[in-house]
Amino acid sequence: MSSSSGSSSSSGAGGGGPMAEVHFIGRFTNEADPRFAWPGSTIVARFSGTGLDVRLADAGNNHFAVVIDDGPPTDLATSSAKDTYTLAANLPAGEHTVLLEKRTESFVGVVQFKGFVPAAGGALVPTPAPWTRKIELIGDSITCGYGNTGAGPLCPFSPETEDEYSAYGAIAARKLGAAHVGVSYSGIGVYRDYGGVTENQMPVRFERTLADDPASTWDFSYLPDVVVVNLGTNDFAKGDPGQAYVDALSGFLDKLRGHYPNAYLLCAVGSMLSDSYPSGATHLTKAKQYVNTAVESRKTKGDTNVGFVDLGEQNSGVDGIGCDYHPSVATHQKMADKLAAAIQTAKGW
Q1: Which terminus of the chain faces fewer neighbouring Cβ atoms within 10 Å, N or C?
Q2: What is the pTM of this model?
Q3: Distant-in-sequence, close-in-space partners of 72: CB < 8 Å, separation ≥ 6
Q4: Do 241 and 235 touch, CB atoms closer than 8 A?
Q5: How far apart are the first and last CA of the chain?
Q6: SS3 for 271?
Q7: How many contiguous H segments (helices) and E segments (strands) does the chain have?
Q8: How far apart, in Å, are the Cα atoms of 153 and each of 60, 75, 318?
Q9: Is the model's pLDDT at 2 over the cut of 70?
Q10: DSSP 3-state percent helix, strand, coil across the chain (nearest 5)
């Protein structure tokens, strides 16, 4: 099912499109059986009445951000032991909005959306899709929000401390009034992963509707305005990847351009790589050089709709640090400011 399809009718991600009771933003399987896994997968709707439940079949133990009427997010923890959850109750009579966004990443579990259930006397209200601006975020654990709410740096991964809603890409999208589609996976690279494995990296998983299901082929009918690529931290985990990384990133940019002829491709570096660790390795400087080489290679081919942004290096002494030395929410906020500014400059948003 194309990103931002409606459960009662198909809709694009742009406001003013076809009306639907429910809008999906992200990679979902199909209208009859909408399953999803990537972090940032989002479901939005308008409803009348005083409350709303949601029915979800969770294969794992995911967490969601729940936003009612553009208020502050609350956390919803789901599990395979339950399928109905209250999102809102005792609201003033009238119409309200709901946003349900997957905070946790693909390996935490695939989820099936089985419908919103308004309180007695209420109903879902058909609306046009809520956003005209569209961003796709391709990355690793940083983009997932791995450990960003944890007390780190020694805490391990847990679904409770991963919050894609508070990660830099999602924050930047909200600042820009844009829908965002998350395509990120912890430990992954564009050439090799954290463990040095070169098979099944992002250029492969990127083709999937469900990250861990090779048979779930994505149709690419969804066309973002901006595609952000922040891959490289894991490619450097076993040392300098050299030209192999440049070649892999260049090839991935070629693939992205094939799928998205008119999108602005924005390559990013930050915020975990450093020139001080490992000592003498200058990984941050090399990553910037390699990414810029790939970007300039596209420009020499006549593709000027491509750019680079430095999202900065985390400063744990000032902003704290998350689990396994991942960026804190405070660092993500600073990264989001840099990303939003770069997109504003390029797109005039």
Answers
A1: C
A2: 0.95
A3: none
A4: yes
A5: 28
A6: strand
A7: 7, 15
A8: 25, 23, 14
A9: no
A10: 25, 25, 50
Phi-psi region of 334 (alpha: psi -120 to 50; beta: other; left: phi over 0): alpha
Q: Which CATH superfamily includes the segment(s) 133-347?
A: SGNH hydrolase (3.40.50.1110)
Tens digit of each residue's pLDDT (9 = 90 or more) over 231-255: 999 999 999 999 999 999 999 999 9
CATH class held by domain 22-125: mainly beta
Amino acid residing at 54: V
């469900």: which residue's tokens?
210
pLDDT tens digits along 183-196: 999 999 999 999 99
Q: How far apart are CA 110 and CA 205, in angstroms?
A: 15
Residue ranges per domain, the chain?
A: 22-125, 133-347
Amino acid of residue 278? P
- Please state, in angstroms and rounded to a whole number, the distance separating the CA atoms of residues 242 and 239: 9
Q: Is the peptide bond before 153 cis (omega within 30 degrees of 0)?
A: yes
